[in-house]
Amino acid sequence: VEDQRARWERKRSRTAKELLETEHRYLEQLDLVLTYFVTILKAKGTLKPAVLETIFGPLESLYSASHVLSLHLEKGNLGPGLENFCQSLDLYGHYAENLEHANKTLKEQVRKNKSFRRFKKLQETRPQFQGRQLEDLLPLPLQRLHQYKHFFRDLLENTSPDTAEYQKLA
């Protein structure tokens, strides 16, 4: 029994560590989009606010929710971090529902708006983007949501059922 509990704890620790590491990478990628696209486009006025909202949706709020989650994870507060994060899941739903429309609007702006087309091309050539285009980065929240599902399941499987954290994970 002690050996089994020790194995569970090791697996749980590894999963929690991997969740934190991948959360940091995810935040870095979202930060690229927010810094080099959303913030600058808002300041320059290259796109109308409604078009900007259509393309990027609640990306800033998703970043904020993940940032808070990462702070909880860094402190080892897995249960409260996940509980707090779950309140943001509706943002992911909204983002998912809008992604197809966002991509259509992005393509339309690239085709019709010369200054946006130039701006987008310039931003994507920055070394931070490592050859990725905006179209590659917009689906990241949905990909991350899928990863969360697996992380949380793995954490649940390796958490003792008689702990308070098990109930929160469940």
From TrEMBL:
<dbReference type="GO" id="GO:0005085">
    <property type="term" value="F:guanyl-nucleotide exchange factor activity"/>
</dbReference>
<protein>
    <submittedName>
        <fullName>ARG39 factor</fullName>
    </submittedName>
</protein>
<dbReference type="InterPro" id="IPR000219">
    <property type="entry name" value="DH_dom"/>
</dbReference>
<dbReference type="Pfam" id="PF00621">
    <property type="entry name" value="RhoGEF"/>
</dbReference>
<dbReference type="InterPro" id="IPR042987">
    <property type="entry name" value="ARHGEF39"/>
</dbReference>
<dbReference type="GO" id="GO:0030335">
    <property type="term" value="P:positive regulation of cell migration"/>
</dbReference>
<dbReference type="GO" id="GO:0005886">
    <property type="term" value="C:plasma membrane"/>
</dbReference>
<dbReference type="InterPro" id="IPR035899">
    <property type="entry name" value="DBL_dom_sf"/>
</dbReference>
<feature type="domain" description="DH">
    <location>
        <begin position="11"/>
        <end position="170"/>
    </location>
</feature>
